[in-house]
Design a protein that fits this description.
The structure is a single chain. With about 130 residues, the protein is an alpha+beta fold. It has a domain at about 5-85: Alpha-Beta Plaits. It is about 25% helix and about 25% strand. The chain is built from three helices and four strands; from the N terminus they run βαββααβ. The chain has a four-stranded antiparallel sheet. β2 and β3 form a beta hairpin. The longest helix is centred in the N-terminal third of the chain and has 18 residues, at about 15-35. The radius of gyration is 29 Å and the shape is rod-shaped.
């Protein structure tokens, strides 16, 4: 039975696409030299996904333990919330519910309530000022 490993990298301090340019070739080479049968990269508006297929669970786990893989995963743009690594296919395989983008933290994102203006209506006198 084929064993998949999925690596999802989210945008952070810099884009996940930039991370892929820096570490993608090393990850692909390590996967090939450690028995990967196929791999596929997926680009999303929130980051990138790498799915790698291995013939056995042992090969998959051996790839995951390589220093080059650990170094690439340590260099993701958001080291706290920007990485998911799991067995099986995932991010690029499609999902029934689309991901909802996180709101962007920025000033002016919400509408500021405008205070209601008080209007005062005054009536003019019936006589012009020269007759008053």
């Amino acid at each position: 039975m084929d064993q998949w490993l999925t690596i999802e990298v989210f945008d952070g301090e810099h884009s996940a696409s930039r991370w892929r340019l820096s570490h993608g070739d090393a990850l692909t080479e390590a996967a090939l030299t450690n028995g990967a049968e196929q791999w596929v990269w997926h680009e999303h508006r929130w980051g990138v996904v790498l799915e790698i297929e291995f013939a056995t669970e042992e090969r998959r786990d051996a790839f995951r333990a390589l220093p080059v893989v650990t170094a690439a995963l340590d260099a993701v743009p958001d080291p706290v919330l920007g990485l998911l690594v799991y067995s099986g296919r995932g991010g690029g395989a499609g999902s029934r519910m689309p991901r909802r983008p996180r709101p962007l933290p920025m000033a002016g994102a919400g509408a500021v309530p405008v205070p209601a203006e008080r209007v005062r209506i005054g009536l003019a006198e019936a006589l012009p000022p020269m007759f008053g």
